[in-house]
């Protein structure tokens, strides 16, 4: 898929995401929007996966460690053919298959996630298994920046370095906000680059709001350098909806009717410009 097609796809998915959250009456809107461009590129340009055979042995593994942003993943999986339309439409209803966090009963989902801090450890296990079995698949893990306060992440960081897991890519959705405010006020993270470099990882920074830069970064990972890869993806919480951008309350806010209509209007205008 060409870059312009990816940009259009991201906006179409942004529209569907807002509809899903509004109609379902629940969701972690801000983080969904900040990570959506990265997920769009991963599933349409990078990951070797097949919706017709979601458990194929040589598939790339993807772990959404920040599982509270399930709505963004659901929209991408639906677009790729993993999740049927009727299941997506039922989100937020009684006994719906799709819950507030991903689980392994959903095609395309590798682990139950939502208890923050565990995704990277599981990703390390997947990447190590590939090394032990001499398999070529890669493992990608997306984490939130508020999640970086969890200690298990740093146990995984040490293990990734020890076992030279150059087939593992951890992507940090660095939007600077968590449920209770700024990450630097709640639990300062900086200097992230120095910290992960000290752990022995190959640290890369990218603009996670920019599709071109995401593609360039992910396509140029060196999977032969004997180091696990840590990508600091600088993003905007609430990206693409002006009144949500960089506002902490939209971590898990649901737009009201007037807000929803304004957001849809803005996104639809960008879709027309992308065509």
Question: Care to describe what's here?
Answer:
This protein is an alpha/beta fold and 275 residues long. It has helices spanning 3-24, 29-46, 70-80, 85-89, 119-132, 152-162, 183-186, 192-198, 211-219, 257-274; strands at residues 61-64, 139-144, 168-174, 177-178, 181-182, 202-207, 229-234. The strands form 2 sheets. A 5-stranded parallel sheet has the order 1-2-3-7-6, with helices on both faces. α1 runs antiparallel to α10. The protein is globular.
Major β-sheet strand ordering? 1-2-3-7-6
The overall strand count is 7
Mass-distribution shape: globular
Mean pLDDT: 96
The percent range for strand residues is 5-15%
Radius of gyration: 18 Å
What is the ordering of alpha helices and beta strands? HHEHHHEHEEEHHEHEH
Distance between termini?
Answer: 14 Å
The poorly predicted ranges are none
Tell me roughly what share of residues is in helical segments.
40-55%
Q: Which structural class should the secondary elements be placed in? A: alpha/beta
Biggest sheet layout: 5 strands, parallel
What attributes does this structure have?
275 residues, alpha/beta, 5-stranded parallel β-sheet, two-stranded antiparallel ribbon, 10 helices, 7 strands, 12% strand
Give the structure's gist in a few sentences.
By secondary structure, the chain is an alpha/beta fold. 43% of the residues lie in helices and 12% in strands.
């Amino acid at each position: 898929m060409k870059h312009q097609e990816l940009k259009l796809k991201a906006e179409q998915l942004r529209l569907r995401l807002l509809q899903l959250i509004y109609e379902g009456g629940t969701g972690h809107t801000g983080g969904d929007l900040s990570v959506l461009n990265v997920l769009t590129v991963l599933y349409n340009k990078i990951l070797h996966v097949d919706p017709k055979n979601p458990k194929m042995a040589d598939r790339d593994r993807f772990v959404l460690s920040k599982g509270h942003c399930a709505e963004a993943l659901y929209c991408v999986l639906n677009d790729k053919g993993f999740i049927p339309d009727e299941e997506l439409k039922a989100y937020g209803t009684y006994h719906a298959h799709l819950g507030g966090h991903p689980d392994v009963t959903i095609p395309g989902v590798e682990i139950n996630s939502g208890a923050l801090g565990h995704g990277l450890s599981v990703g390390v296990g997947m990447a190590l298994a590939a090394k032990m079995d001499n398999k070529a698949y890669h493992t990608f893990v997306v984490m939130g920046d508020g999640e970086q306060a969890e200690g298990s992440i740093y146990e995984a960081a040490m293990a990734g370095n020890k076992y030279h897991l150059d087939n593992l890519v951890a992507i940090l959705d660095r939007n600077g906000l968590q449920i209770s405010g700024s990450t630097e006020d709640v639990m300062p993270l900086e200097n992230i680059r120095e910290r992960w470099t000290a752990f022995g990882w190959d640290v890369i920074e990218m603009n996670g709001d920019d599709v071109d830069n995401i593609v360039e970064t992910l396509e140029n990972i060196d999977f032969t350098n004997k180091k696990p890869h840590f990508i600091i993806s600088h993003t905007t919480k609430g990206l693409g909806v002006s009144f949500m951008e960089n506002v902490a309350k939209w971590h898990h806010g649901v737009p009201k009717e007037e807000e929803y209509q304004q957001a849809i209007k803005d996104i639809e205008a960008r879709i027309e410009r992308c065509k």
